[in-house]
Amino acid sequence: MTLRPLNVLVIDDEAAVRQIVCEMVRSAGYPCDTAAGAAEGASKLVRGGIDVALCDIRMPDGDGLTLLRNCRESGIDTVFVMVTAFGSMEMAVEALRAGAHDFVSKPVNREELAHRLSQIEALRGLREENRVLRKSVGGAGANRFNFSSPAMLEVGRLAGKVAPTDSTVLVTGESGTGKGVLARSIHERSQRAEGPFIAVNCGAIPDTLLESEFFGHTKGAFTGAERMRKGLFLEADGGTLFLDEIGELPLQMQSKLLHAIDEKSVRQVGSESARRVDVRIVAATNRDLQAMVRDGRFREDLYFRLSMFRIHVPPLRERPQDLRDLIRHFLGASTAGGRRLTGLDPAAEELLLAYAWPGNVRELENVINRASILADGERITLGDIPAELSARAVSGGTAVASGPVGDLRGELRRYEAEIVFRTLAGVSGDRRQAAQQLGIGLSSLYRKLEEFEREGLGRETDARPKFNP
User: Which end of the chain is more exposed for a tag (fewer CB within 10 A), N or C?
Assistant: First the structure.
């Protein structure tokens, strides 16, 4: 992948400095233009096409830091390197806080400047490469699975409508329905796709660390703060911040979060100044936030702010049209067993289709991955499915053996046990020989015997268990 050379703009009120620095830039192999002050610099930057601005901080018609902040607020992504004769650590820190990439002092060293520009060029190459890779992977993944249920088609339609905007989005639904996947999809289809996607589980952060995690802290802000921390908002600057389990935030933090969203700025713990941030918020919860508002456990103003655009992801049991395709999707994607499987036996598939999936899509994926590990052949069999899942699928919590006579899955399980025990009896209990006759692995036979015993489906010592079909 070949990128054009960096376009550099030197912004300085001193003509001699502009000429010398621009000559250094050109000798390093980069095109260069100049601006005689903040106003002319702003005029050229707004036209676009400037990759790097070498900008003086103190100029008669304005300061470079204000120019930098205005560019950031306008969405101009030019890399700023501040150049000043008044070098100091305080000014360097202020420039970096404002969003500058780097800071150099006058007189500018030719080798140092060339090295800084080459670093910026390398970083730009990596970002472009990542963008292309994300687009390639995202494009392949976007068509990898298509929902067919009307409910999920509506979810997709809503996500497609809101993604190109900067609207805050609230995603609701039970645990395991794929709220996080939807949030990432919204980000990848937005104008911020090249920016960061930062996800955080609000319920996993101790209350005492919430403010520091969200907004960052300065070095020495509190005991143990041995270095500065940017915080989630600054990490997500220019991208999307996904707040999962938003209903777990304590009220005090809800207030600070609302302020950060409304003001579009954050103040690090230990800092006296706020910093502007450009972050899109996508939040998710499996709780009833409206009920929490009524109970005084969630701020009403924050709820209204977050739910400007709401998308509800229905549970898997309410969209059975998706189940069969999801099973095949996860089966094709699974490499848990170190190999690709060709499919499922009919009895195993019937069992999966009959189950209510209280853990939703996440539970289904876990079951398929586990069965892929246990499968001895190229297909998942009924014996590879967790026994407890079989019991709940048949009778809502009652063991298969005690299920009603005539129930297909219960009868299949009973018949499977009868065949296994009959085979064992025919080879005088030789498990290895029985496994060979049954066409399954020895480990699968041991597992089936343990499951049959737990389910009350006879004992190995029985020559022919007595079932009452």
Answer: N
